[in-house]
tRNA-specific adenosine deaminase
Amino acid sequence: MLQPFDDNYFMKKAFQQAEMAYEKAEIPVGAIITHGNQIIAQAHNLTEQLTDVTAHAEMQAITAAANYIGGKYLHDCTLYVTLEPCQMCAGALYWSQISKIVFAAEDAKRGYRSMQAKLHPKTKVEFGIMEEEAAQLIKDFFLEKRKF
Amino acid sequence: MLQPFDDNYFMKKAFQQAEMAYEKAEIPVGAIITHGNQIIAQAHNLTEQLTDVTAHAEMQAITAAANYIGGKYLHDCTLYVTLEPCQMCAGALYWSQISKIVFAAEDAKRGYRSMQAKLHPKTKVEFGIMEEEAAQLIKDFFLEKRKF
């Protein structure tokens, strides 16, 4: 049976955002936030273009989703992001009390888990969907960057 | 001898920002960022007005300072903030590689130290300047809030 609005579907949408970051010479990370089966925010990393370390995909998506909802808290919302969030984004997600986070590739060095950052106790986490594709996109980015 | 541009001077400026937050019914936290003896960014908490958990004083100040400098990194810059940064703000400060952080009041519950968030190894930290005034302002805010 077809399940068009499943985790794979939404992670593909986040991956498309990551590809948009890649095209702009940004570290390719993309994020979307859903509420029910509706995408209420989508964003990609813009730290270089905006010369702003806070412009991670997740941060922009949190701001956009809260704006859409008209409230600070992202209850009943899910974040799909192509890379494990850093401690800044984990901190923002903590304050948002988001219901669920799904990330693709792990970030062993700067991910929130190795940095020991805390998520909200209400937040469920899943990972590994499209892990290889998301990790490969980032590897390709840095390989290409080294050529110049 | 007069030392007009010392830590006390700049923390008073951050405190004035916190008072502006108080007047807007925001949790009263203020921040400024200096480069040399120049204030290059000032901001106060706007999470309620913007319905955005990411709108902490520090986050806005980081964005504004990077915009002023024209680069992502806040080398040779100091953040003065009236409350110990949370893990989100610590994470943003980590990415910014800011040279120094001075905070007034400690946040035993949600401060970056108790949350085990990491600052950049290059970042020096001082705290305790105007600690009582900054803590009292926050206490006053919550006491007043409970009345309504």
In short: The domain at 7-141 of chain A is CATH 3.40.140.10 (Cytidine Deaminase; domain 2). The longest helix of chain A spans residues 7-23. The beta strands of chain A are 30-35, 38-44, 77-83, 100-105, 124-127. The first strand of chain A starts at residue 30 and ends at 35.
